[in-house]
Amino acid sequence: MIILLVGTGAREHALARALSLDPAVSQLHAAPGNPGIATLATVDGDPVTLHGVDATDPVAVASLAGAVKADLVVVGPEAPLVAGVADAVRGAGIPVFGPSGKAAMLEGSKAFAKEVMAAADVPTAEPRVCRTSSELEEALDTFGAPHVVKDDGLAAGKGVVVTSDRREAIEHGEAIIDAGGVVVIEDFLDGPEVSLFCLCDGETVVPLQPAQDFKRAYDADAGPNTGGMGAYSPLPWAPADLVDEVVRTVAQPTVDEMARRGTPFVGVLYCGLALTSKGTRVVEFNARFGDPETQVVLARLATPLAGVLLAAAEGRLADLPPLAWRDDAAVTVVVAAQNYPDAPRKGDEITGIDEAEQIDTVHVLHAGTALDHRGTLLSNGGRVLSVTALGATLDEARERAYQGVDRIVLPGSHHRRDIAARAAAGENLLEA
């Protein structure tokens, strides 16, 4: 099987790693990829700059898929999906794992996602859609603190502010409106958050294992929201029937509603959930694998990945046997550049990755990296690396992941030291 993987981040590196380990995959191509992915795949573009096909250009991606004779195209990030890359690839007669542009609006517009959830009777926070400052202030007063203020459109995981400070909530909302955007104000959901990825083929839903990520920049959930600073799986404190419940009450009704609308959803339905005192509620939908949760979920998946993604692309998920999972726990820790998430510094040399990967089960996934003309690895983004490890227990996986982090040298970098700490200590987050 020849596969073209679209994207540049640690999520795509995790996908590339899983696909490269699948004996059914004979060739793996990536556009534009990154220096880590380039060790596993043929990267389209210059090996230093990685400039090549624009991942958000539907015609260019479809043309590349045809040129490499791809049997399957896997689209990683949200922006190409919303841009209609999957539509163009399907139009060229090539199977693609990723929703159409219209179906990807489940992520592209939070207001649209709320509309679909209401039609499908999916439990979620009550929303108010605001296009003016007066509507914004009225909605904030209606719900009260803590205030949940979201950018309706794509914001790379950083468009949400949760605050008890009304002035901060107004400033965030007005900045979105002033930029021509739409604001969604929601009722605050208490309880721990969980991510569950569901593979969909337009009709059938196959869930993966749940994970939990850490959105705040610093330990103890301090600091601003980020794209995610680490994750772990499994969740020993989560209800045993959580996955079945989410498929029954969230994922399957949503997939059925999208099919009813004539926009079948093919790809990953990322269910961001809050396990509240009133039951499980949807915080948000995404239309692709999440980062950094993908890093730990795929590390635990024992079933070869390529055949599963092809079955989803071809509408054959119902024919597959149940997925197999390793008993091991997985933890990933994100190494971020200096000043992330505000104004991350780029161009610092990275060393120690080979030393980190000498630790049993540790692998390092590239996100914001680049090579200079001498072949030196440099930081080139906010979240630079994801250090991932397996262990017989969460505690062992944590220990290995942090041993790996400690061997990596990136001047000015920072990372959280508390990823999975509470769960590893046996704390029941539902009672916290």
TrEMBL record:
<dbReference type="Pfam" id="PF01071">
    <property type="entry name" value="GARS_A"/>
</dbReference>
<protein>
    <recommendedName>
        <fullName>Phosphoribosylamine--glycine ligase</fullName>
        <ecNumber>6.3.4.13</ecNumber>
    </recommendedName>
</protein>
<dbReference type="GO" id="GO:0009113">
    <property type="term" value="P:purine nucleobase biosynthetic process"/>
</dbReference>
<dbReference type="InterPro" id="IPR020562">
    <property type="entry name" value="PRibGlycinamide_synth_N"/>
</dbReference>
<keyword id="KW-0547">Nucleotide-binding</keyword>
<feature type="domain" description="ATP-grasp">
    <location>
        <begin position="114"/>
        <end position="314"/>
    </location>
</feature>
<dbReference type="InterPro" id="IPR016185">
    <property type="entry name" value="PreATP-grasp_dom_sf"/>
</dbReference>
<dbReference type="GO" id="GO:0005524">
    <property type="term" value="F:ATP binding"/>
</dbReference>
<dbReference type="InterPro" id="IPR011761">
    <property type="entry name" value="ATP-grasp"/>
</dbReference>
<keyword id="KW-0067">ATP-binding</keyword>
<dbReference type="InterPro" id="IPR020561">
    <property type="entry name" value="PRibGlycinamid_synth_ATP-grasp"/>
</dbReference>
<dbReference type="GO" id="GO:0006189">
    <property type="term" value="P:'de novo' IMP biosynthetic process"/>
</dbReference>
<dbReference type="InterPro" id="IPR020560">
    <property type="entry name" value="PRibGlycinamide_synth_C-dom"/>
</dbReference>
<dbReference type="GO" id="GO:0046872">
    <property type="term" value="F:metal ion binding"/>
</dbReference>
<dbReference type="GO" id="GO:0004637">
    <property type="term" value="F:phosphoribosylamine-glycine ligase activity"/>
</dbReference>
<keyword id="KW-0436">Ligase</keyword>
<keyword id="KW-0658">Purine biosynthesis</keyword>
<dbReference type="InterPro" id="IPR020559">
    <property type="entry name" value="PRibGlycinamide_synth_CS"/>
</dbReference>
<dbReference type="InterPro" id="IPR013815">
    <property type="entry name" value="ATP_grasp_subdomain_1"/>
</dbReference>
<dbReference type="Pfam" id="PF02843">
    <property type="entry name" value="GARS_C"/>
</dbReference>
<dbReference type="InterPro" id="IPR037123">
    <property type="entry name" value="PRibGlycinamide_synth_C_sf"/>
</dbReference>
<comment type="similarity">
    <text>Belongs to the GARS family.</text>
</comment>
<dbReference type="InterPro" id="IPR000115">
    <property type="entry name" value="PRibGlycinamide_synth"/>
</dbReference>
<dbReference type="Pfam" id="PF02844">
    <property type="entry name" value="GARS_N"/>
</dbReference>
<dbReference type="InterPro" id="IPR011054">
    <property type="entry name" value="Rudment_hybrid_motif"/>
</dbReference>
<comment type="pathway">
    <text>Purine metabolism; IMP biosynthesis via de novo pathway; N(1)-(5-phospho-D-ribosyl)glycinamide from 5-phospho-alpha-D-ribose 1-diphosphate: step 2/2.</text>
</comment>
